[in-house]
Amino acid sequence: MVVSRRTITGLLCNCLIVCLYFSSVIHAADPPAVQKSVVYEDTVLPIFQKHCVKCHSEKNRKAEFDLSSTAGLLKGGESGAGLVAGQPEESLLYDYLHEELMPPEGETPLSKAEIETVRLWISGGLKFKAAPQSVAESRISQHDVIPILYRRCVMCHGPEYQEGGLDLRTKAAMLTGGNAGPAVITGQPDESPLVKYIVEKSCPPKAEISRAGIEPMPAAELKTVKTWIAEGLHEDDNSEPFRLDQDPLVTPEDRQFWSFQPPQQVTPPAVKHQTLVKNPIDAFLLRKLEAADLSYAPEADKRTLIRRATYALTGLPPTQAEVQAFLADESPDAYEQLVDRLLASPRYGEKWGQFWLDLAGYADSEGKRSADLIRKYAYRYRDYVIQSFGEDKPYDVFLTEQLAGDELVDHQHASEVTPELIEKLVATGFLRMAPDGTSANPVNRVTDRLEVISDELDVLYRSVLGLTMNCARCHSHKYDPIPQRDYYRSMAIFKGAYDEYDWMTPQPFSNQWKRARSRLLTLVPKEEQAAIDQHNASIEAKIADVESKLKDKKLDKAEKKKLDKQLKDLKASLKTPEMIRALWDRGRPSPTYIYRRGDEMQPTRPVEPGPPSAIAEGISPYRIDPSLQTDEKTGRRLAFARWLTQPDHPLTSRVIVNRIWHKHFGTGLVKSIDNFGALGTPPSHPELLDWLAVEFVQQGWQFKKLHRLIMTSRAYRQSSTVTPELEKLDPENELLSRMPLRRLEAEELRDALIFTAGELDETKYGQPVAVEVRKDGLVTAKRSEDGWRRSVYVRHRRKEMPTFLEVFDLPQMNPNCTERKISNVVSQPLLLVNNKMVHELAVYFADRVRKQAGDDPAQQIKLAYQLAYQRPPAETELALALDSLKLLNPPAKNDSQQDSRPADGFTEYCHVLLNSAEFLYID
C-alpha cells in the first residue's frame, strides 16, 4: 500500500494530539499522588534551612517570620499567615518565592524544582510527618469584622451620618444600637438586625451603592460577621505597648546605616593650599582634590560669574546695567555683594519656589481621569511657596506648616479669617497635590482613595526624607530596614485627614450626592457663610422656578428669550466665596490595619501611628501631645512635623542640603537625591554633607544663608574649562575640579527669551495664566496686555502641558518630580527655529535693540550681544554679523524691486542669537 506524505503527516499530527490529550489527563491526575509524597520534614524543611532560616529564625525573624519551627511557620509574619493549605496562589510565602522577591539579591535563589516542591506541598494540604507544634487557636475578633463594616456600612452608619441613629464603628456602638435597638445579638447572628438587613439586601441601599463608592457585602464577608456574632463577639485586647526604637524587625545593625545616624559636627580639614579656601566647603573638597594631585580650576571671569549667579538665584539673565556695574566694581567683596543683592531680589522666590513645587508635585488639575478636572484654587499653594521662599521662611517652619498647618490654628471656631489662618491652611496644599480622580464615581472606590494616599506618602518620603517608603506597601522593603507595618504606621499619621473610609472629594460635589464632602474651605467666617448660603438658597429656588417654566412647550420665542435672560441673570447673582484647597484633621480616624499584599480586602493586624522605626533611635521619639487631641484634631501630623524637624534628625537637613547642592553643581553629594537607603549611592564627601546639614540647622534652617555659603565658595567660582589633565584625572567631575556646564531649565529658557525681548510681565501671584490648546495639540500660554508672565504662573494642566516647556523637559507630575532630567534632542532646536512665539519674541527683541541703539548696524549688533549673552561681540563676530546683514538686507536697485527684498534681516539675526548654544547654556 502506498501512503502519501500528506497522509503520514496527518496521522502523526493526530497521534500527537492524542498523546498530548492523554498526557494532560495523566498530568491532571498526577498531583494528588505526587502531593501525598511531599512531606515537610523530608523535602521542604531542607529547602528552608538552605535558603531561608538565615533571616527567618527565632533569633532574626525578618518580617516576624520564623521558619525554624513548625509553630513559627504556621503562625506567619507581620502580614498574617504565610501559608494557606491547598492554595499556593494565596500563600504569601510561595508568592515571595515564585516572584523571586526572596531570598534577597546576593543570596542563592531557589531553583525552579525547589519552588515547585514548595508549591506541591502547599497544594497537598501542608503535610507533616509529625503533628505540628501547637499554635494558638485563631478566633475571629473585632479586627476581622470592623474592617468589613468600614468597607460596606460605615458610610451611612459612622462619623458623618448615622442613619437610624446607628453607629457601626465599634462593638460597643453596635450593642447600643440605634432607633431599632441593638444591631447585634450575642450568639444569635440570624436574629441580629445587622445580619437581617444585609441578607434582605436592604443595606446598603441600592440608591447609595454607586454614588457612595460602596458595594454590597459578599457572602464570605457576611459569613465572617455571622461567625463573630455566633462566637460571642470576641474582642482581641492583647495589644502591647510598642516602642519604635525596639521594633524586633529592625536590628541594631540596621540602625547603624549612615543615613539613619544623626549628622555629626565635623571640623573642616587642614589642606596644603589654604589660600584657596574661601569658606569651609572648600577645605572639604580640596582635601580630596589634593589627594588626587589636583586643585581647583582658575576662577571664572566676572562676566561668567554674574551670569551664573543671576540665573542660579533668579532664573533670569542679568541686565546690561547690572553687568556693567559689577564689572566696574573693584571692591574685594564685589561678588559677595552681588550674591546678597540677588538673594534679596523679588525674582528669587519665583525661581526657587519652582524648585519646591517640583517636589510637591504641583499641578493645576486633578489628573487620573481623562476629564483632568481643573483645580481652581491650587494656585494659592503655589503663591504660598513663592512667598515663603521670598521671605526666607525657615525650613523647619515651612515643613511644619505644610504638614500640619491646620493643627496650628483653630480654623473651626475662628471668629474672623485672618491672613495667618489662611496661610496655615493654604500651606497644607502640599498634601493635596498628588493626582486625585476621586471627584466622582466610578473612580471613588476605596482602592482609588488608597492610591491618592499612597502617592502623597511617596511625595513626602522621597522629597523630604529621601526614602522609598512605598516599596513597603505590599511587603517589607526588600533592601532597607522598613517593615511593612512602617508603611501603615505612616499612613495612620494622616488618617485624621486622609481616611479611605471617611473620604472628602477634591472637587465641589453634586447636590444629588448627599454623602460627599468636599476638601475645599471657604475664606469667610461662619456667619458670613450662613448669609451666603441663605442668599444662594433663595436664588436657587427662583432658578428652579424659571427652569420649570422653560419646559413649557407652548412658549413663544419672545417669552423664552425673556426667561433665558432671567435665568442667566439669576445664575450670575449666585455668590461664590473664594475657597482654598486644604487638608484638615477631623479628629475621627478609622483604625489602621496592615493590608496583606497591599490589598484593602485583606486586612491583618492593627497598627498605631508612627514614623519609620529604623530612624527612631538617638533622637526624640514620635510623641503625640495629649493636649492637642480633641474631637476635631488628632495631633498626629503635628507630632510628626515636630519629630521631623528636630535639629538632629538624621535625614531632614541632610536631604534638603543635598538637594540644594545638586541644583547648584548638577549632582548631589549623594547622587541618588531621593534615595538615602541601601540602593542609593553613598555620599562622595560624607564629612562635608554632615557639616552642611549641621550648619544649615545652626543658621536657623534658612535657605538664603545656605545659598550664600555654597555660592561664595571657591569651588562655585571655578571656570568650567575642561583640560586634558582634568579629563584624565577627574573625567566625571566627581571631585568638582571644575564648574559643570549646565543647560537652562525649561522655565529659565522661556523666561529668558521673554526677558531678553523686553516683554516680561512681572505681575506676581494670582490665577494661573490661561493657555490656548490648538487642534494639533500645541499648547501655548496667552499673552497679557503687558507681555508674557513668568512660566511659574502658567497653568499646568496634566493633559495640557505647555508645549515649549514640555519639549525642554518640564516634568510630568505623576506624582511629583524629585530630579529634573535634562535632555538634548532634535525637537528642541526645531522648536526654537519654527515656534511662532519665538519668532514673535525675535521681532520684539529686534525692535528693542533698534530703539536703544539707533540705526547703526554695528551698534545694534553690539547691543544685541549684550542683551543676549551679557558680553560684547568679538571683532570677528561683529564682522561676520555685519556681512550677514548685508546678505539678508541687500540694497534695492530701484523702487520696483523694493518688495522683493527679505522682510527684515536684523530680526532674523536676532532670532539666530536666541537659538544659539550660548543662550541655552551657562558656563
Describe this structure in words.
This protein is mainly α. The protein contains 36 helices and ten strands. Strand 3 and strand 4 form a beta hairpin. Helix 25 crosses helix 26. The N terminus is likely disordered.
Short descriptors:
globular, disordered N terminus, 45% helix, 923 residues, mainly alpha, 36 helices, two-stranded antiparallel ribbon, 10 strands, single chain, two-stranded antiparallel sheet
What secondary-structure arrangement, pairings included, does this model have?
Elements: H1 5-37, H2 40-51, H3 70-75, H4 92-98, H5 112-123, H6 142-152, H7 171-176, H8 193-199, H9 206-211, H10 219-230, H11 252-255, H12 280-291, H13 302-314, H14 320-328, H15 334-343, H16 346-360, H17 379-390, H18 395-408, H19 419-427, H20 446-465, H21 484-493, E1 520-522, H22 526-550, H23 557-572, E2 579-581, E3 592-595, E4 603-607, H24 636-644, H25 652-665, H26 686-698, H27 703-711, H28 724-729, E5 742-743, H29 746-756, E6 760-761, E7 771-773, E8 779-781, E9 788-789, H30 803-807, H31 827-834, H32 836-853, H33 857-869, H34 875-888, H35 905-914, H36 917-920, E10 921-922
Parallel strand pairs: 6-9
Antiparallel strand pairs: 1-2, 3-4, 5-10, 7-8
Please state the CA-atom Rg, rounded to the nearest Å.
34 Å
Principal-axes shape call = globular
Tell how many strands the DSSP assignment holds.
Answer: 10
User: Which strand order spans the largest sheet, edge to edge or round the barrel?
Assistant: 1-2
Structural class: mainly alpha
Helix content: 40-55%
Uncertain segments = 1-35, 897-902
What is the average of the pLDDT values? 90
Oligomeric state of shown chains: single chain
The largest sheet is: 2 strands, antiparallel
- End-to-end distance, in Å? 90 Å
Strand content: under 5%
Report the total helices. 36
